[in-house]
Design a protein that fits this description.
There is one protein chain. By secondary structure, this protein is mostly helical. It contains five helices and two strands; from the N terminus they run ββααααα. α1 runs parallel beside α3, α2 runs parallel beside α5 and α4 packs antiparallel against α5. The longest helix is centred in the last third of the chain and has 34 residues. The radius of gyration is 22 Å and the shape is globular. The model has no long low-confidence stretch (mean pLDDT about 90).
Amino acid sequence: MTAPDTTTGTVAARARPSLLHGQSPVVAVVAIGGAIGASARYAASLAWPTQAGGFPWVTFWTNVVGCAVIGVFMVVITETWAAHRLVRPFFGTGVLGGFTTFSTYAVDIRKLVDHSHPGTGLAYLAATLLAALTAVTLAATATRRTLKRRRR
């Protein structure tokens, strides 16, 4: 790209930022991490399939466990460990974002309601939300307390 040089009246080329210093590495590690996390979630769904109209336990526990790990990870990465700039996008956004599946959660609720199981759908909606928020809060709190004890 070129721009006029106001001091000389000529057109000078603008320096482009290096791909290594731009967003390319972040996008790459998020994609790789997402593939790992989504593959783990998919493997769990194959190992423990949900019956039609049944409570989607695999998705429920995937989201709860993923939120607990997010709680631990965010405390460690923000309060304890000065990690490389790509660790957070790789693990937090990529792996854990691919592992947890709130889009499947929404689809599961819709399927339950559409197949005449509105009570199960409502229970799943509330239970997942409460369990996920509780998991991330308890995990973050426990991690902080553990790290505080270890520093003494």
